[in-house]
Amino acid sequence: MNVEPERAQVLLCELESPLPLETLEQRLYALFDRLELANAEVCLSLVDDAQIRELNRDYRGVDEATDVLAFAMREGEGPFFAHDPLGDVVISVECAQRMVESQDHRQRVAEELQRPELQWTLLEELTFLMIHGILHLLGMDHAEPQEEQQMRAREAALFLAMHESERNGEPTTV
Fold first, then answer.
1. What is the pTM of this model?
2. Alpha-carbon dihedral of residues 100, 135, 86, 46, nearest 10 degrees?
3. Mean pLDDT of all residues in the chain?
4. Would you state the pLDDT for residue 6?
């Protein structure tokens, strides 16, 4: 895999808990490869509930914490070019941990993939939310039922491809 270190960036914002950043960063590169975004740029920030609540309030007018926010650098359709800045994906690690405990995303993805044995840790939740955010940066949405169905199918397919390659001991490419 030909990886350019500057094409993706993983930032930690005021978190004390140890997270598998190297694996998450590898998965981000693998996601770019799968989506054929060889030189796209994205900033992935892992924050706490207070920080994401502030962003959600300031940019969406919703005064509550959420799991993931995506801030696209561009809007509308059109081709993506080399070194094209996609935008920022911000994930609340606290919210992600609650989602692991509730198993909401695991159950949905396991059903969609027909994999009831699917294991789900904080790393899987962060990966899922990262995929969700990147798809938003690429223009996908889930405001309408048909859009939601398409986005969920794409999330599940990308997650499965990444999960299967790792489970088979292959490099983290999809």
1. 0.84
2. 0
3. 82
4. 55
